[in-house]
Amino acid sequence: MKIKKDINKNIFRAYDIRGVVPTDIDVDTSYTIGLAFGSKLIDLGKDKCVVGHDNRISSPDLHQALIQGLIETGINVYDLSLTTTPMYYYACINLGIDSGIMITASHNPKDENGFKIAFSDYNNAKGEEITDFYDYIEKGNFKTGSGSITKKDVKKDYFKALLDNLSFGSRKLKVVLDPGNGTTSILLDELFKNVPVNYKIINGESDGTFPNHHPDPSIESNLEELKRVVKNTKADIGLAFDGDGDRVGIISDLGEFIPMDYYMIIIIRDIINKVDNKTFLYDVKCSKSLEDEIIKLGGKPYCYRTGNSYTKAKVKELDLAFGGELSGHVYFRDKFLGFDSGIYAGLRLLEILSNTKRSVDELLEGINKYYSTPETKYKSLDDKKYLVVEKIEEYCKNKNYTYNNIDGVRVTFPFGWASVRASNTGPNITGRYEADTLENLEKIKEEFESLITKYNK
After folding, report:
1. Is 213 a catalytic residue?
2. Could you tell me the strand order of the sheet in which 174-178 lies?
3. pTM for the complete prediction?
């Protein structure tokens, strides 16, 4: 392995490092990141960190190279090896080590990989921390030393943390679980033997090529098999998890996809009278149904930018009991540790269902309904997507539209809204649209899709 001098700057994104293997990221890239991260920790007065990797085919080699770079700077590595991202978060807390690196590309395609990095305070680096880290790597002033490797297995304690504060009722649920061959495959069967439900696992073999479907549970088309199995087995609920296990997707007993903003309504209805701080955070892509419901319940809505590094940190900063985003990241701080675990999010819904005879759809009765599109991705270039969004903001300003620019542009009309933003995880522009009628929805969608097409040429 050798120090890589020409690392692609575009892989240093808003809240992680992510790119194609081996075009953007190879073992030399990982080794160099290890050298830089270790050196940075020593600058901060630290001498240890936690490291883990997901089940992608490229992850073991990147993992070995990363650790080699770390120990050559004098950092003592606590190595989890193959693990989910939430179990990595838990290990940092459990071991009292607030710095680390998780090798994963989350829900991205199988030929990609990346690094979620935490310099301090258990928080994933984001924004300027990431760009500053790239500059640090470019300078190449790496420390030398002799660190150690300590293997760690926190699975038993992690299972206890997931289950200890849950109170399941007398209803014995029938549950279908779909890890999509992602990293939660290594945990689900063993964990759910301790959960008082009848469960069935599909796509349960750990396989980093993701042979059955793309491991992104926020996209409904990825969950068609789960829908069929839920309906055919007359299950009460279907739960899907993404590639590294920090997000969840929901299928109702009728085989219908439940968006995460609706899931959040169920959770908030359940906990609002049990918590002191009644402010709840959601991201700019969430339906107005969620905002309406928080207000109806006597709570305070807090709309924030997309990105789990941002939303998780803000929920912690504001000392909120719960928050989340449309993509499936949710954070419980009422009786959990505040990090995003798809499995824990699913367990919280099972807990609610087990204490009632109502279905998921019945738990959503009475909410204000709007017509929404799913999140849509429009291909763009990494060095162009931000310019497109800037031009759309300028357009909105000239039209005297009401909008916020906390994350891209979210334009609010009396009859609906549009959100257009540059993706933080890939070369895309993302859009979502919502309105009170189908006619108004089409009107909003046509206006902003035409702008994206115009400025993206």
Report:
1. no
2. 198-201, 174-178, 237-241, 248-252, 257-258
3. 0.94
